[in-house]
Amino acid sequence: MNAADPSSSRNDSDAPSTLDAETRALCATQARWLEACAIFGGIGLFAAGLAALCLATGAGYDLLRALACVAVALLPFERFLALRLRFDRGLFADLAAARIADLPTLDRALAASGLRRASAGPTRTLADRVRGTRRLWRAHAAVATAQLLLSLAAAALRI
Known about the structure:
Blueprint: H1 21-36, H2 39-56, H3 62-73, H4 75-96, H5 103-112, H6 126-158
């Protein structure tokens, strides 16, 4: 079984004590991708700011206000996703740089920090973690894009 193959699965009993070079390369690649995708955080903040500006500049059409309100209301969700992705990016970078030896060690540290339940079951595979992170960044991109479209529509109605 290739540890770098996201479709492979492993449990605690056959997980290596340390990560091999291919697995570290996958972790480094994922960390870099998440770093590049951080642009969506800036897009979300810009969009929320534009929407707030549309709301603050006075009365407008009901549709304008509704669009701007929805864009601003999405901000906490966008910020949560950005925070989670930043945290995951750091974990992937730490795995790649061998600051975290293996996945069971990571899970124990997360449990000790209160970020994962200690009885959450067997260690998640790296493939599961990569898939989960991909789902998060897709959701983040969708929320930030929705914010931007709503804000631009509100601004266009304002003109």
